[in-house]
Amino acid sequence: MNDRRRRLAHALQELGYDAFLLTQRPNQLYFTPVEEFSSLPPVPFVLIHGDETLVVPGAWFYHMVKEWLSGCTIAETPVRGDNPETALITEIRRRGLKRVAVDYQTQPLHTALARELPAVSVVEDTHLGPELRRIKEPGEIERMRRAAAVSDLGIEAAFRAAAVGVSNRDIAAEASYAMLKAGAEIVSLQVCSGPGTYSVASETWQYQPQRVLQENDMLLVDMGIYVNGYLGDQTRTAIIGEGTLQQKAIVETVQRAYRATRDAMRPGANAQELYAITVEILRERGWEQYFPHHISHGLGLGGDLPRVAADSNDVLQAGDTLSCEPGVYIPGVGGARFENMIHITPDGAEELTRSPLSPVVGS
Amino acid sequence: MNDRRRRLAHALQELGYDAFLLTQRPNQLYFTPVEEFSSLPPVPFVLIHGDETLVVPGAWFYHMVKEWLSGCTIAETPVRGDNPETALITEIRRRGLKRVAVDYQTQPLHTALARELPAVSVVEDTHLGPELRRIKEPGEIERMRRAAAVSDLGIEAAFRAAAVGVSNRDIAAEASYAMLKAGAEIVSLQVCSGPGTYSVASETWQYQPQRVLQENDMLLVDMGIYVNGYLGDQTRTAIIGEGTLQQKAIVETVQRAYRATRDAMRPGANAQELYAITVEILRERGWEQYFPHHISHGLGLGGDLPRVAADSNDVLQAGDTLSCEPGVYIPGVGGARFENMIHITPDGAEELTRSPLSPVVGS
Fold first, then answer.
1. Dihedrals φ, ψ of A110, to 5°?
2. Which residues, including other chains, have CB under 8 Å from residue B115's CB and lie 6 or more apart?
3. Which residues, other chains included, contact B208 with Cβ-Cβ below 8 Å and sequence gap of 6+?
4. I want to staple A21 with a disulfide (CB 3.0 to 4.6 A). Which of A102, B4, B242, B352 is the partner?
5. DSSP string of B48-82?
6. Following DSSP, what letter does each residue of B256-302 receive, concatenated?
7. How far is CA B177 from CA A148, A273, B169, B186, in A?
8. B61: nearest CB among A38, A185, A199
């Protein structure tokens, strides 16, 4: 039993669970013994019960999982076999489990488990996985350095392509290409320019892809990429051309907030004190109302801790990895965000991303 | 009132609704009077009530929506103003609505509406939007031709890059770049090779991005792109090198199923008869069990009708646009899918995508 599984077994015992049902890929990747992330296809269920790892693959990954995954029990779900949910229920019943934690359950899964296994207490625990995955192992830090390096290449490519007359879409094309070629398996980019930069709080929308850069635009590039399963995340903002005094003040102020907040990130620092550092710097300008989001989310396989935000009380620990990403978005003017990937060492914040805070614009 | 809104008003009257609450972007885009798709940011709510279009933007798009959207009422939701849900409830109350259709509601929205507006009957109707958007206008067909042409460029770029030693990720880089440069605003690609091609039924996972092409691999490239808001969708499969007799038979059989099914697509054809054409051709080989999915989904702004599948009774109409995408995926061997975008004219199926069914491999 490796260290991850030992810590999990201890936690399950402490909380009184017989087993842990994993539906979320980050948890599956972390606790299933796999060589590398791509040897675990996206399966509906992994059930961890003592030493055993039961994988319920479903028809489409059944043969792949059978062939590639060693050290796991594989539920029989070939084409025209049981569907994964039925197989899971059979396996839970067969093991006589009484109290099962699940990392997330959809309404249909909840209904099916309650109907078919009325004597089994199934408890959703969304916190357990992220908590156990929180402190990163040295091997994970190395993977995150690689993801950070790929994100550096994307930021460089994006701003190198930036010039008056170039579309947000063109910039996305250059950055995506650079990162996919360098090893990213998934690339999601947000390229915003001009008034659109004040709308970046919407994380899922690459706003106005057809918009063409104009003199005195602000250009904001944010990303979420995965490299060998680990998140790479970085944001830079630049002014195209000379810019107004107000635009320059936005950039300067957010960079200052970033540096001050990063410098305070060390073991024992708490979310409220870190959040206050950014807010205080923005307040000097009267801009605190234009900073609507978190300062930090955790980094790793996805959905990680800790969180630094107005509503968080997390306290940083050595081995944490998290973003640091203050921003200001003023309607009608534009917005800026600067974001790096941070590793908390006993001595303080180490930046995993290495791009200069003010990117080089144009080639 | 334009034709779309006239048809909607008629439907609402027939079904006894006072208003239609839109949370889904395809419906918002279709029924909100906008110049082009990018002038409507992703807003939480649009409420259509007679001639009026009420947009509830929320803080992050409030100023943009105020500036750009004409002919709409804009709910006051600036930074530090009401949140969108509260504003929506106020506006429904103010208009004295009694029976409101909603295209989709999350559990929190459902709970809030039931609590704050107990006298208002809110009915989820997921079908109304897709039904009214189903028959495409000539202007929409032109947009879809453009999306199809961009997808042709992506397929060409993908297979031109294919060679022994090239990774799935490299192929994705070339295809993404070609399509983003040609006008795609969003690109989602699935590049599978070797044994992975039998796992394409999982639509959200670009399997094994780091895998490198080997002699006698099957290579499958599928995509979902958006061009000016409209979906482009195409799949091709090719054998790298000579291939085995069985691989060649898979490709030939799926292409034959594609052609036969496409040729039967005309106004009045029903889903069961079309589905049976593909299944019958696969059954001759004993492969019907390896075809697990639909033949067709509708095309357009997203979530469109009609559907051709084992469980569908849709009947094709002139003006429909839909995919035609039979596939066979044999565990341990590989899989193939061929997919084109089809426009149903009074005379039959017109292919909007124009790439050759057997793509040119290598440069």
1. -55, -45
2. none
3. A38, B168, B192, B193, B196
4. A102
5. EETTEEEEE--HHHHHHHHHH--SSEE----TTS-
6. HHHHHHHHT-STT-BHHHHHHHHHHHHHHHT-GGG--S-SB-B-SSS
7. 22, 43, 12, 11
8. A199
The residues, any chain, with a CB within 8 Å of residue A159's CB and separated by 6 or more, are A219, A221, A236, A238, A359, A360, A361, A362
Task: Name the residue in chain B with its Cα closest to that of A204.
Answer: B42
Alpha carbon of residue B303 to chain centroid: 5
Q: How far apart are the C-alpha atoms of B321 and A194, rounded to whole Å? A: 36
Going by C-alpha positions, the residue among A26, A55, A30 that lies closest to residue A43 is A55
What contacts B14, CB < 8 A, 6 or more positions away?
A: none
Q: Quote the pLDDT of residue A141.
A: 98
Q: Do B199 and A292 touch (CB under 8 A)?
A: no
Q: What is the mean pLDDT of residues A200-211?
A: 60
Note whether B184 and B226 are within 8 A (CB).
Answer: yes
Considering only CB atoms, B185 lies closest to which of A42, A202, A210, namely: A210
| Residues in B touching A210 (Cβ below 8 Å) | 38, 183, 185, 228
* CB-count exposure of residue B267 (10 Å: 0-12, 13-18, 19+): middle
Percent of chain B with pLDDT over 70: 97
Question: Do A268 and A315 form a contact (C-beta atoms < 8 A)?
Answer: yes
Mean pLDDT of chain A, nearest integer:
93
Q: Mutate one of A68, A79, A166, A180 to test the B interface: name it (highest B CB count within 10 A).
A: A180
Nearest CA in chain A to B292: A79
State residue B208's pLDDT score. 78
Indicate whether B18 pLDDT > 70. yes
Q: How does pLDDT run across B281-333, given as a tens digit for each residue?
A: 999 999 998 898 899 999 999 999 999 999 999 999 999 999 999 999 887 78
Separation between Cα atoms, residue B258 and residue B254, nearest integer Å: 6
ipTM: 0.84
Question: Å from B121 to nearest chain A CA?
Answer: 23
pLDDT digits (tens, 9 = 90+) for B138-189: 999 999 999 999 999 999 999 999 999 999 999 999 999 999 999 998 899 9
Question: Residues with Cβ < 8 Å from B91, sequence gap 6 or more?
Answer: B47, B54, B56, B75
Distances in whole angstroms, Cα of residue A246 to Cα of each of A162, A216, A328, B253: 21, 11, 12, 64
Instruction: Quote the pLDDT of residue B63.
Output: 81
Burial annotation B59-94 (CB, 10 A radius, 16+ → b, else e): bbbbbbbbebbeebebbebebeebebbebbbebbee
Residue of B68, B107, B177, B204 to mutate for A, most A C-beta atoms under 10 A: B177
How high is the pLDDT of residue A205? Answer: 47
Give the pLDDT score at B204. Answer: 42
pLDDT digits (tens, 9 = 90+) for B42-75: 899 999 999 999 999 988 788 888 888 889 999 9
Amino acid at B93: R
Under 8 Å CB pairs connecting chains A and B tally to: 126
- Whether the Cβ atoms of residue B324 and residue B265 lie closer than 8 Å to each other: yes
Work out the angle between the directed axes of helices B168-182 and B138-161 (0-180°, nearest 10): 140
Across chain B, which distance is largest between two alpha carbons, in Å?
A: 70
> What is the reported pTM?
0.89
| pLDDT, tens digit (0-9, with 9 covering 90-100), for A350-359 | 999 999 999 9
> Would you state the structure tokens that stand for residue A208, as one six-digit string?
């106005």
Residue A58 has pLDDT above 90, yes or no: no
| pLDDT confidence bin for B196, thresholds 50/70/90 | low
Residue A36 φ then ψ, to 5°: -150, 165
CB B58 within 8 A of CB B43: yes
